[in-house]
């Protein structure tokens, strides 16, 4: 499957933002505990990195 782009993960965004993956999760799902400045930075990075929520993985967690 050469040529396939790897899916961007919350860990990738966390690494790029210099925060934990928990902080990324809170920012993406609009949870408490993240400053508006950090949330904006994470959301901008997520968009730039073409991040999208993996619905299958998310449903497994529930």
Structural category is mainly alpha
Low-confidence stretches: none
Main beta sheet: none
- Rounded to an integer, what's the Rg over CA atoms? 12 Å
Could you name the CATH topology? 434 Repressor (Amino-terminal Domain)
Q: Which percent range fits the helix content? A: 55-70%
Oligomer: single chain
Could you say which overall geometry the principal axes of the C-alpha atoms support? globular
Give a concise summary.
This protein is mostly helical and 62 residues long. Helix content is 58%, strand content 0%.
Architecture blueprint of SSEs:
Blueprint: H1 10-17, H2 21-28, H3 36-48, H4 55-61
Helix pairs in contact: 1-2, 1-3, 2-3
What can you see in these coordinates?
The termini are far apart. 58% of the residues lie in helices and 0% in strands. The longest helix has 13 residues, at 36-48. It is mainly alpha-helical and 62 residues long. The model has no long low-confidence stretch (mean pLDDT 91). It is built from four helices and no strands. The chain has a single domain, classed as 434 Repressor (Amino-terminal Domain).
Keywords:
62 residues, mainly alpha, 434 Repressor (Amino-terminal Domain), 4 helices, 0% strand, globular
């Amino acid at each position: 499957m050469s040529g396939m782009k790897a899916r961007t993960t919350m860990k990738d965004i966390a690494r790029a933002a210099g925060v934990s993956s928990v902080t990324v999760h809170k920012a993406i799902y609009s949870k408490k505990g993240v400053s508006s400045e950090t949330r904006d930075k994470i959301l901008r990075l997520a968009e730039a990195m073409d991040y999208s929520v993996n619905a299958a993985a998310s449903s497994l967690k529930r």
